[in-house]
Amino acid sequence: MRAIALIERAVELADARFPGDALKEACRFASREERLAVLCIVQSRPALFGHRATPHQVIAALREMVCSGPVRLLASA
Q1: CA-based diameter of the chain, in Å?
Q2: Distance between CA atoms of 47 and 26, rounded to whole angstroms?
Q3: pLDDT per position as a tens digit, 9-60
């Protein structure tokens, strides 16, 4: 999914101390649909519910999502 790749790029830029809004930069050449998908993912982060988040808080929530990796389900024996 392209939106996840854009989010991963934003986290990489932020970690590299990009001098600006890393998420905006990562999405600069994305299509409208891709930017909307990124927005939906950002708005779905529990750490961002109920308040207007700063860019730093947004990146921190996205970093947590990216670094946590996929959820692994254990099969019952």
Answers
A1: 51
A2: 21
A3: 999 999 999 999 999 999 999 999 999 999 999 999 988 888 888 889 999 9
Among 58, 48, 54, 49, residue whose Cα is nearest residue 11: 58
Those residues with Cβ within 8 angstroms of residue 40's Cβ, 6 or more apart along the chain or in another chain: 3
pTM: 0.81
- Residue 46, number of CB atoms within 10 A of its CB: 8
Beta carbons of 30 and 6 less than 8 angstroms apart: yes
| Residues 7, 26 contacting (CB under 8 angstroms) | yes
Which of the four pLDDT bands, split at 50, 70 and 90, describes residue 70? Answer: low
Residue type, 47: A
